[in-house]
Design brief:
The complex is a heterodimer of chains A (344) and B (226). Chain A contains 12 helices and 14 strands. Chain A is an alpha/beta fold. With 226 residues, chain B is mainly alpha-helical. In chain B, helix 3 (16-50) crosses helix 10, helix 4 packs across helix 7 and helix 11 (181-191) runs antiparallel to helix 12. Classes of the chains: A alpha/beta (344), B mainly alpha (226). The interface between A and B is medium-sized, with 27 and 20 residues. Bound molecules: adenosine-5'-triphosphate and magnesium ion. Residues 46-47, 168 of chain A line the site of magnesium ion.
């Protein structure tokens, strides 16, 4: 049983031949309680895809099913009722400037049959949840970006949704505020079991909170899997380039291209990039190799982090010694991906 | 005091009842015309805006027709409109002259005018707010009421203000074609009989009326902006 099912969803703006194919035949199944990331470059179709989930954008083909109800065949009135169970937050926050924080949060509660007192209590509870209990009477213009997004989250949660859609919700925020918003989303996910879909173009966001991730490129989902799998074993060039943005291991190519003195080699030396595979304790392997084959390993760049309690990353190093090629062979057998970038 | 006034505005002091009468007529025209303009002009503007391509009540034929009505009435100088519509006024209200006779031409001028003002005010409301409301399950009607009209209050207040000011202007013109009011009073004495003091006093009264309307409009717009 999935909370969100997209089956063969396509969205074309304009005519079939001349139009923009923003989303092409996307099939994604998202489990209840999951935090699912969708990453891609600008124009990849991420926003269009996420807007298909609550049918703000009507797919030109395919079906959208949320919590067992097929949205793509619903008439308008029913659709509006279902949308109350799908919260959404935006890059630009979209708070109503003429309403106070409390009035913004109470906005979706109108017509829900709640009494005035019950509404006030609910608003108070939501503002406490997002950490802004003392801002009820402020206007959005008096808040910082991070505070606005917290209010938007409170508003999105007011009608008790089962799904929270986040379209670039942290893209207008600085890194620290981004962290705090992501932590809040994670918290809410753990407390309430709400299913979260996060659209982003920042790999760091995916790493921080997502369980699974889909990579989009020109309307297609080109890669999908657990965040660890996608990071440790990327299959597509787009995915690799996203991963490169979060690590410094790509910088070596620029140094080599520029002929930097740092990368000048003597005969027999090589520069290699080593990427640790699954369950590989990198640093120990390096010192083993160094001892076993009597090679000197001098590390130029290193980037290792812990993702889902497993180490992930690699390093760029200059290897020198008689048995360099044997060392490389041994490393490959140890599940380390070795790319030799330059030979002396 | 009276003596002093008689010396500087002799013609006005001669006929205070007529001045009062003219003032009341103007107030009637502005009052009745203003209220009906608001009641019809704001919905007209909302329809004009929401039926446009990509709007929440998108409807090309309706939008096209409303837009054309607007353009036609707005392009006719008011003096011609007043003359042209005397017949229509007779037909509907039974008279083409006086305050009653002026109402229809006045409305034909102000409703499209206010409609365009309201359309412009609603266009200032960020699309993101509508998007957020749609995502929260709001119906088009709720979006009009709870997002567009609510967020556009400052813009609408400014639109209403300049519409009412134009309306005062139009009532003076209507006076020239038999509607009575301050315009008529100023033209028949101040201009035709060269009693300049009458024209000056009328101008002062109108300036005061415009200032009051402007002050109220600005206050409402300011109060509604956060
Ligand atoms: N309403 C629309 N009409 C026509 N084309 C559109 C519309 N909305 C999006 N597109 C096009 O669809 C493609 C995908 O757009 P989309 O906004 O989904 O990309 P995105 O991945 O969210 O990009 P970004 O990171 O810049 O937000 C783009 O080429 C865009 O120009
Ligand atoms: Mg986008």
């Amino acid at each position: 049983m999935f909370m969100i099912r997209l089956d063969h969803v396509s969205k074309t703006f304009g005519g079939e031949d001349t139009g923009v194919h923003a989303v092409r035949d996307v099939t994604l199944h998202i489990a209840p309680g999951e935090i699912f990331g969708i990453i891609g470059y600008s124009g990849a179709g991420k926003s269009t895809l996420v807007r298909c989930i609550n049918l703000l954008e009507k797919p030109t083909a395919g079906t959208v099913t949320v919590d067992g109800q097929e949205l793509t065949r619903m008439p308008g009135r029913e659709l509006r009722t279902v949308r109350r169970k799908i919260g959404m937050i935006f890059q630009q926050f979209n708070l109503m400037p003429s309403r106070t924080v409390a009035e913004n949060v109470a906005f979706p509660l109108k017509g829900s049959g709640l009494s005035k007192e019950a509404t006030a209590a609910k608003v108070k509870e939501l503002l406490e949840l997002v950490g802004l209990p003392d801002k009820a009477g402020s206007y959005p213009s008096q808040l910082s970006g991070g505070q606005k997004q917290r209010v938007a989250i409170a508003r999105a949660l007011a009608s008790g949704p089962k799904v929270l859609l986040c379209d670039e919700a942290t893209s207008a925020l600085d890194p620290q505020t981004t962290q705090s918003i992501l932590r809040l989303i994670k918290d809410i996910n753990q407390k309430t079991g709400i299913t979260v879909v996060i659209i982003t173009h920042e790999m760091a966001v995916v790493k921080e909170v997502c369980h699974r991730v889909a990579v989009m490129d020109s309307g297609l989902v080109v890669e999908e899997g657990s965040v660890y799998d996608v990071f440790s074993n990327p299959q597509q060039p787009v995915t690799r380039s996203f991963i490169a943005t979060t690590s410094n291991l790509g910088k070596i190519e620029q140094l080599i291209a520029a002929g930097d003195p740092m990368v000048e080699l003597e005969p027999g030396q090589i520069i290699a990039r080593l990427n640790y595979g699954q369950g590989n304790v990198g640093e120990a392997t390096i010192s083993q190799v160094s001892r076993k084959f009597e090679v000197d390993v001098s590390i130029l760049y290193s980037n290792v982090e812990i993702l889902g309690s497993q180490p992930l990353g690699g390093l760029v190093a200059r290897l020198s010694g008689e048995q360099v090629s044997q060392a490389v062979e041994y490393l490959s057998q140890q599940n380390v991906v070795v790319e030799v970038l330059k030979r002396g | 005091m009276a003596e002093f006034l008689s010396s500087i505005i002799p013609n006005v002091m001669d006929k205070p009842e007529q001045l009062w009468q003219a003032f009341v007529e103007t107030i009637q025209m502005v009052g009745i015309g203003g209220v009906i303009s608001l009641l019809l002009g704001i919905p007209f503007g909302v329809l004009l805006f929401t039926t446009k391509p990509g709007g929440i009540l998108e409807n090309r034929p309706v939008h096209f027709i409303l837009g054309k009505i607007c353009d036609v009435f707005r392009s006719i100088p008011f003096i011609l409109l007043a003359i042209l519509l005397i017949g229509l006024s007779r037909l509907i209200l039974g008279t083409g002259i006086g305050v009653k006779g002026a109402v229809i031409p006045l409305l034909c001028a102000t409703i499209p005018y206010l409609g365009r003002q309201v359309e412009g005010a609603l266009a200032e409301v960020p699309d993101g707010l509508v998007e957020a409301a749609l995502a929260m399950g709001c119906s088009p009607w709720e979006i009009i009421w709870r997002i567009y009209l609510k967020e556009a209050i400052p813009g609408i207040a400014r639109g209403v203000t300049i519409t009412l000011i134009s309306l005062i202007n139009f009532t003076a013109v209507a006076g020239a074609v038999g509607a009575g009011g301050l315009g008529n009073f100023a033209i028949s004495y101040g201009s035709n009989r060269r009693q300049t003091d009458i024209a000056v006093v009328v101008v002062i009264i109108i300036v005061i009326m415009v200032s009051i309307i402007q002050a109220i409009g600005s206050t409402v717009a300011k109060k509604a902006t956060h």
